[in-house]
Design brief:
Helix content is about 60%, strand content about 0%. The protein is mainly alpha-helical.
């Protein structure tokens, strides 16, 4: 699922997931967030760069990549990661034991978190 790129690779995935988990533990997230939200945040950390090509959104947009066309030049790589993640959740029945409202919240938290990693929006 992760390409063998110099930075956005499986090691980066593990690093971000571990950091997210440690931050949630260190700052007492159990007092502020539901267990579902905490798992969704760690899952977002795991999937946030799935299939990352090793370039950035600006490159995808300027070269008219297929992904840029599919996602209308809006958070191209992040949108692709969300799409792949949601497909994997469904394919493997990850959310099958959740109530529909819980599954919807889980998907929303994962996608909102992944979309928030679009560097172009960090200063909005």
């Amino acid at each position: 699922l992760y390409n063998d790129t110099p930075y956005h690779n499986a090691m980066h995935c593990v690093d971000v997931a571990q950091t997210t988990f440690c931050l949630l533990r260190s700052f007492g997230a159990e007092r502020l967030l539901t267990p579902l939200d905490r798992v969704a945040l760690v899952m977002a950390a795991i999937v946030h760069d799935v299939a990352h090509p090793g370039t950035n959104n600006a490159f995808a947009e300027k070269t008219g990549s297929e992904l840029a066309l599919i996602y209308h030049n809006q958070a191209v790589l992040e949108s692709h990661s969300c799409s792949l993640a949601l497909g994997l959740f469904a394919q493997h029945g990850l959310l099958r034991h959740l109530e529909p409202a819980q599954a919807a919240r889980f998907r929303r938290v994962v996608c909102e978190t992944v979309l928030a990693t679009d560097a172009s929006r960090h200063f909005d």
